[in-house]
Design a protein that fits this description.
It is built from eleven helices and 41 strands. It starts with a strand and ends in a 10-residue tail after the last strand. Helix 7 (619-630) packs across helix 9 (681-703). By secondary structure, it is an alpha+beta fold. The relative contact order is 0.18. The protein has four domains: 2-68, OB fold (Dihydrolipoamide Acetyltransferase, E2P), CATH 2.40.50; 96-201 and 473-719, no CATH class; 215-220 and 229-363, no CATH class; 379-460, no CATH class.
């Protein structure tokens, strides 16, 4: 397949021209000879793939696949990537199973179908449904590792090693892991609420300075919000300052002055050995802390770095020595505040001084009432709460690193091995307080004023993940006992935010299923002690993978600022067939705190057995449970650690199933009273299949055959046999994993460039993750520059 851009399109004639990307002669095509597109989708500027056929010495396309945009103004509706040749492609290790819309509940809805929706669960003080026991057998088809919380080993560079879970001195699979695995499938096939769901607002680090970001100092924090003093040195500067102009207007001027604090290369770890940190080169005097009021000499000759201009600080002194600073030609004396966040990024060499040009007479800070209205600002309590949450997230991301530094006894400044260091404002339970220096953003996409601790801030998206479920409230965590989803009624429920002033409201319900540990029956041996490849945390800000547009389709331009964007669904790690040792084994020089080593990981073929005791389940609920346990022929469950690396694919088989006759049970003191006698294996299997078939019938009636079967199609695509001859791994820029020279994040950097610049600057369209049932073609390698990697 070749690639090009539609140069001309004549709808009335049904023909047009394609300009190939290789610069060769334009190609003529006809609208009645398309594949994968209709004439209504064709427009000038769309990127397309095509094949050539020569007729009468004039080339014309005979297979035409539209892969560009369907809306030339918004560049939206990009389809999934399609292979153009025998290039290397790969499958992402996860995708999503779509959720279903709210069903139509009316007078024709049967009791069984209502049980697959929302209702009051049965009481626990009487038996009104089916009770019994299910015995299941497990066999792993890929390596399996479930970590034990005991016997962790901490080695050099904070590298941790784990052993396989043990119970009573023997290998086992913990009941909690089995329960979570089955509940996730049960939630999916019953369209229950998302039991594990972070509904918060995501944020993303901006690649450029926000235009309206203003330095400020907090003068007061109260129940209504906070009072700020604006400290913008880009306003009111002396008339002798000369600005640099480009294309008829001046370049951006920084609103805080810069002061040299470190040698520029002190944090450059590319040197071997790295250049050591030398505290004597620090231009900020010892004893000056973040937020301290200082005196400073500011050069009026602006520094231009081709991106923006800034005022440079010649000298800084504490207030006790401000009389030692004297103005001279081209240098002005002011009072301000030192904003010191520490060596928190590589090659950092500047800190900031917040000041105003009119603050040049008194070393004492001004009071709120003495400030002019132009430099006073107030923010409401929502802005303060959001800032406090922002600081808490910084702490959550960096607490382990800070603990490691504390364990070593490091203090700031610190040695080069520990750099970069977490910012000085990252502290446990840190809150906005009087005297804090912040950056104030009066207008934001979030809809309210923002406060941020750093110059290149993480800014929140307009919509939270809960907002994207606004049209699907049934997927939010259940909040009322009389309206619980099937999963909460079956596995148990706890109110996510119990009201303190209403003790009469029920806030929890015990589940009606109990899982045992799976005890070990046999195995085919264990893997050698294995340092695993680096496993990262989920990255939901990779919106090309996590979101759909308002039509429920993959879309490269959609993010959490897009109105009516949709969450893709429930995340599932793909079954990889055979795990590849080259992919799951750590390829770096030596293990570190970024990866883990596992001991006694089981080779394929290990067998376990566990039981599920159930009480008061209606037949359709029991059918859903049996389906979630066994799935379909050829599908596997995903359990344990390192699922993105191919570990943890297991088959579950219901070996025994029996229900209890409570009348007979309570009428006798015999141990086996009430349990069925003389049932054959065939009888048991027929009952299981009937219960599962009834569940599938009722859920299809409730949600519609096509809708529910789209869920099954996604599950089959992810938990069934993977496409042949396509490797499965996280996106990366190279065919072979090369964490030293080409880390995986370069792929995402390159794809982001495509999203931002296509089609003006980059000829290659952005890559979006297809829907799970369509995700069989693979994704391409992308370099950090956005170009394909051959």
């Amino acid at each position: 397949m070749l690639r090009g851009t539609i140069k001309r399109w004549f709808p009335d004639k049904g023909m047009g021209y394609i300009t190939p990307v290789d610069g060769s002669e334009d190609v003529k095509f006809y609208g009645d000879n398309l594949a994968g597109a209709s004439p209504a989708q064709i427009f000038e500027g769309a990127t397309v793939e095509y094949e050539l056929r020569r007729r009468a010495r004039k080339p014309t396309t005979y297979r035409f696949s539209l892969i560009g945009v369907a809306d030339s103004k918004s560049n939206r509706n990009l389809e999934s990537y399609k292979r153009t040749s025998d290039e290397y492609v790969f499958l992402n290790p996860y995708n999503f199973v779509r959720y279903l819309a709210r069903p139509d509940i009316d007078e024709n809805t049967t009791n069984e179908q209502q049980l697959l929706w929302r209702c009051l669960p049965p009481p626990h003080d009487r038996y009104v449904g089916l009770s019994g026991q299910i015995t299941c057998e497990i066999e792993n088809v890929t390596p399996l590792f479930v970590s034990d919380s005991h016997a962790m080993h901490k080695g050099e560079k904070n590298h941790y090693g784990y052993r396989f879970f043990e119970y009573d001195g023997k290998l086992a699979l913990p009941a909690s892991s089995l329960r979570g695995m089955i509940r996730s499938i049960f939630e999916t096939v019953t369209n229950s609420c998302m039991g594990v769901f972070d509904e918060g607002r995501l944020d993303l680090r901006e690649g450029r300075l926000p235009k309206d970001l203003v330095p400020a100092r907090v003068l007061e924090v109260n129940e209504n919000g906070a009072k700020l003093e604006l400290l913008d040195c880009s306003e009111g500067y002396p008339g002798s300052v000369k600005r640099y102009w480009r294309k008829g207007s001046p370049v951006d001027l920084m609103k805080a002055a810069s002061v040299s604090a470190y040698e520029e290369r002190v944090l450059d770890t590319r040197e071997d050995p790295p250049i050591p940190f030398d505290p004597t080169r620090n231009k900020i005097l010892q004893g000056i802390q973040d937020g301290d009021r200082v005196a400073a000499l500011i050069a009026l000759q602006l520094v231009n770095n081709k991106l923006y201009e800034y005022f440079n600080v010649v000298e800084v002194a504490p207030l006790s020595r401000h009389n030692k600073l004297h103005e001279y030609k081209g240098v002005k004396k002011v009072f301000g505040y030192a904003h010191i966040t520490g060596p928190n990024i590589e090659r950092k060499h500047l800190e900031r001084i917040f000041f105003r040009w009119d603050d040049n007479t008194s070393p004492e800070p001004a009071n709120w009432q003495d400030l002019s209205k132009q430099v006073r600002e107030e923010v409401d309590v929502k802005s303060v709460q959001e800032y406090n949450q922002h600081l808490a997230e910084y702490w959550a991301r960096n607490r382990s690193q800070i603990q490691k530094l504390n364990d070593k006894g490091d203090t700031w400044p610190i040695d080069a091995e520990s750099l970069p260091h977490p910012s000085t404002f990252i502290q446990e339970e840190r809150r906005l307080r009087e005297g804090d220096l912040v950056y104030y953003i009066p207008r934001s996409k979030a809809g309210f004023a923002l406060l941020r601790p750093v110059l290149l801030p993480r800014l929140p998206y307009k919509y939270s993940r809960a907002d994207l479920l606004s049209g699907q409230k049934h997927l939010e965590h259940c909040t009322a006992l009389d309206n619980l989803c099937p999963a909460c009624r079956t596995f148990g429920w706890v109110h996510p935010d119990p009201p303190e002033d209403s003790p009469e409201i029920v806030t929890a319900y015990a589940g009606r299923v109990r899982f045992s540990h799976a005890h070990h029956l046999s195995d085919e041996g264990t893997l050698d002690i294995t340092p695993l490849a680096i496993l990262s945390t989920p990255k939901p800000t990779t919106t090309q993978f996590y979101l759909f547009n308002e039509k429920g389709e993959p879309d490269a331009k959609v993010d959490y600022n897009t109105p009516n964007a949709q969450l893709r669904g429930r995340k599932v790690y793909r079954h990889q067939g055979e795990a590849n040792p080259t992919e799951y084994t750590y390829q770096g020089k030596e293990p570190s705190d970024q990866n883990r080593t596992v001991r006694n990981a089981l080779k394929p073929g290990a067998k376990f057995e566990f039981t599920v005791d159930f009480e008061n389940l209606m037949p359709v609920e029991l059918g859903a449970l049996l389906y979630a346990l066994e799935l379909e022929e050829g599908l596997v469950h995903r359990l344990g650690y390192a699922k993105p690396l191919g570990f943890g694919s297991i088959k579950v088989h219901v070996a025994s199933f029996k229900t209890l006759d409570w009348v007979a049970r309570l009428a006798s003191i015999k141990a086996d009273a009430g349990w069925p006698q003389g049932e054959t294996t065939l009888d048991i299997r027929q009952r299981i299949d009937q219960l599962k078939a009834n569940f599938l019938t009722q859920v299809r009636i409730l949600y519609g055959v096509d809708s529910f079967d789209s869920v099954l199609a996604d599950l089959r695509a992810l938990l069934g046999p993977p496409p042949e001859n396509i490797p499965i791994h996280y996106p990366r820029p190279q065919e072979n994993l090369d964490i030293e020279n080409h880390p995986q994040f370069e792929w995402f950097v390159g794809n982001k460039r495509r999203v931002e610049n296509y089609p003006k600057k980059i000829e290659y369209p952005p890559v979006v993750l297809p829907k799970a049932d369509k995700d069989r073609e693979g994704l391409p390698l992308i370099g950090a520059d956005g170009k394909p990697v051959s």
